[in-house]
Amino acid sequence: MKKRFFASVAALTAALCLLSACGQAEESPKVMRKDESLSSAANDEASSSEEDKDSSLLSPLLKDTSSTAPDEAVVNPEVEKAVEERTPEYYSLQGYYSFTVNGFDMVYSNEELANCFDKLQQICNESYFPMGFCYKNIETGASIGYNQYNTFMTCSTIKAPYVKSLLTKDIDLDTVIPLNEKWPGDDGTLCTMDYGTEYTAKELIEYTIIESDNTAYQLLCRNFGTDTFNSRQYELGSNFTLGYNGEWIFTYCTPEDMAKDYIDIYEFAEENENGKWLIDLMCNAKLNIQIGKALGSKYRVAQKYGTDCLESAFSDCAIVYADSPFVLCIYTVQTPETEESCQVFKDIALVCDDINSLIASEPVSEENEHEADNETQPENNA
Fold first, then answer.
1. CATH topology of domain 148-341
2. Is the dihedral of CA 219, 220, 222, 224 positive or negative?
């Protein structure tokens, strides 16, 4: 009798546990993996109207472009981010750094900024290879430079400013250009095609920016020249140019000068539809292993990398569409396109993003407010 009683109790307990477990299973939320959420987002996007699809400026060349965002969000745990509506304070950091700092009139935290600068100095100290970079906040003009006046090979970072000069020139993007020469040693798409194959200027621009095809870039330079590009360099106060008849289509530059060109691209895209198209192409560059890899999960990053294995040149220039946009141009002399050589780009990008979040616009004083009011209301001056 006792055995039957205990058996009944055990069975009842097991049943209650089973029911309890089932209830938990029903109530527990579904954990969606990132690839599933991306698939869901893709389905939502696919349901958009055909009119929206037809209005896209991007060509079929982009259809097989994989996502440029990293698998996981990249964060820098070394420095706490500045938050909105913090009280600004005057920049008053002291100490020696091997990089130059300009335009930091007001910041959200001198202490946090000092931590950022210390981290940036550590990166510079540990870089055993030649390196230079230039960071510029587009809105405030705040800048940081390290060997920013040293010259480096432009490699393919020059392609985006050159394409911008063609769009400024308002060339006919439907112009047909035959493949009548190939860049020596090129391994891009066009070098595998037959001579005489025809491309539009629009297609050559896409290959130049998205795939960094040297042959496509050479054909553009030969057919449209470099006079507009060179004239713009003089206007920007930039000290590098290209051969007027395409005699040379790569050259040397300083990070400081190249940053001027990328700010110029940003400003052009703010007011010109073709400029917006160029930004779209730069955001979809197929090689994304440097600045965009570090910040692409947080912001839109329009970039153009450069590499020359024979000269051990490796570089990347980017427009980062943070809340307060900035430009970052980094040039190095090291073995290109390795995990180790990419690391310094990501490290610098993360610290510069933290620094960028600490910059505050100087508030208008009461005296300046009164002067501005007098300008808008002349009767106050009577």
1. Beta-lactamase (3.40.710)
2. positive
